[in-house]
TrEMBL record:
PANTHER family from the UniProt entry: LONG-CHAIN-FATTY-ACID--COA LIGASE (PTHR43767)
Name of this chain's protein: AMP-dependent synthetase/ligase domain-containing protein
Keywords: Ligase
GO MF entries: ligase activity
Organism this protein belongs to: Acidihalobacter aeolianus
Domain AMP-dependent synthetase/ligase as annotated: residue spans: 35-287
Matching SUPFAM superfamilies: Acetyl-CoA synthetase-like (SSF56801)
InterPro entries recorded: AMP-bd_C_sf, AMP-dep_synth/lig_dom, ANL_N_sf, ATP-dep_AMP-bd_enzyme
């Protein structure tokens, strides 16, 4: 029986664009030729760490690895030590588009060559072929690996494209999220590969750089971002180019930020709900419905105290680590992470609610609450607020929360150690709190 396959990319019109680099469109025909040429010149090996920063380079490298039968490793951080450990664990070589110091593994520098640009159908990839190993962010503990096949990635992307109307109509995507993250991988690389849309090759960070990059793209434009980035963009006071809609993920938004986004961009905001083990599984229009709606074909089932999710792109049911209130028809309300529940002196709240109140204080640029040791019933907070001192921050917090939740210590910082997607690795937060206690 022949293997079941799915195409490497949506070919459609081979001369249509798949990416934009420096204001110039790159055709699907050229992309496929460069991916085939690179596949022939990749080093031998079973695993490759794709470190390419340029999103188009990442796409070509990812496609070449698939064509060569190699598995792409996506570490949770670009820190040299993390990359080194990941590559050592899998005996992998690294593929990069810029020099990288501090990593002692075989390093293959990406060089794009134009191979044959003959027409024909898109290459077919066995759905059972392992495609990536992606790691959790470490925000709740040690990062753990998750292997995904090409069938799982392509089926999951198909559901997302259908949800947002990206399966037929061409859009032009700009993402602030790195492709090495599951959300960034799905909503930029895979959306462009498997749908008719094209993605900007850059990863602009500052609001004005992002505004210029967005203006380089033809309409209709889609911005793919995170809550941390979106907060900075809505506060920048810039006039944004016409945008079809905004996609946001990695943490649920409050209605204030969602409203600020729609006012700034003049476009609907869609949030995506997912987690590394399952990928994206649901979405909502935050200002119009607080409930999340599962992608087509997915379902929730109760098992003891847990909710499990099933779907055509999942090899097995996946346990959801959040607390849900489930309604009929594949809709649910997100209460919060199980690990975020705080119970001190008989009073209950969540870290998410405490963070929301902290970030609402005028003058607070960034911040988060942490419960270093649940057994000791004491919270800490890390805060970026250049114009406020500790006493004023505690006074403001006392106005909006019970005294048992006031942080001890409250640590002021210049910045928080966020990852490229805005996540905060728990161990780094605990280290900062420990250092603050030692120096007190």
């Amino acid at each position: 029986m022949p293997p079941i396959t799915r195409p490497l990319l949506h070919l459609g019109d081979p001369d249509s664009s798949i990416a934009w680099r420096d204001g110039v469109a790159v055709s699907r025909r050229r992309f496929l030729a460069q991916a085939r040429a690179l596949a022939e010149n990749l080093p031998d090996g079973r695993h490759v760490v794709n470190l390419c920063f340029d999103r188009y380079h990442f796409m070509v490298a990812f496609a070449a690895a698939l064509l060569r039968g190699q598995i792409t490793l996506l570490p949770p951080s670009r820190a040299p030590q993390v990359i080194q450990e990941t590559a050592d664990d899998y005996d992998a070589y690294c593929l990069c588009d810029a020099p990288l110091d501090g990593v002692r593994r075989p390093m293959h520098r990406l060089q794009l060559k134009n191979g044959a640009t003959n027409g024909g159908a898109a290459p077919q990839i066995d759905v059972a072929q392992p495609a990536i190993v992606i790691f959790t962010s470490g925000s709740t503990g040690k990062p753990s690996p998750n292997l995904k096949t090409w069938g799982q990635l392509s089926l999951g992307t198909e559901l997302a494209l259908r949800r947002f109307g990206l399966d037929a109509a061409t859009h032009h995507l700009l993402a602030t999220v790195p492709p090495q993250h599951m959300y960034g991988m799905e909503s930029s690389v895979l959306y462009a590969l498997l749908g008719p849309s094209a993605v900007h090759a850059g990863q602009p960070f500052y609001p004005e750089d992002l505004r210029r990059a967005l203006a380089q793209l033809p309409a209709p434009r889609v911005l793919v971002t995170t809550p941390v980035h979106l907060r900075a963009l809505t506060r920048a006071g810039l006039a944004w180019p016409e945008t079809a809609f905004v996609l946001c993920a990695t943490a649920p938004l409050d209605t204030e930020l969602a409203a600020a986004s729609e006012a700034a961009f003049g476009a609907p905001l869609h949030e995506i709900y997912g987690f590394t083990e399952a990928g994206a599984v649901a979405s909502r229009e935050t200002l119009r419905d607080a409930n999340w709606r599962l992608y087509d074909g997915m379902a929730l089932e109760r098992r003891d105290d847990d909710w499990l999710i099933t779907g055509p792109q999942l090899a097995a049911a996946q346990t959801i680590t959040d607390r849900l209130e489930v309604s009929p028809g594949g809709r649910f309300h997100l209460i919060g992470r199980k690990a975020d529940l705080v119970n001190i002196a008989g009073k209950r709240t969540t870290l998410g609610e405490l963070n929301r109140r902290l970030l609402a204080i005028p003058g607070v640029v960034d911040g988060c609450f942490v419960q270093p040791d649940p057994e000791r019933e004491r919270l800490a907070a890390l805060v970026v607020a250049p114009t406020l001192d500790e006493a004023e921050l505690l006074r403001q917090l006392a106005l909006c929360m019970d005294p048992v939740f006031l942080p001890r210590p409250l640590v002021k910082l210049a910045t928080l150690p966020r990852t490229d997607t805005g996540k905060l690795p728990r161990q780094l937060l605990l280290n900062l709190i420990g250092n603050a206690r030692l120096s007190a």
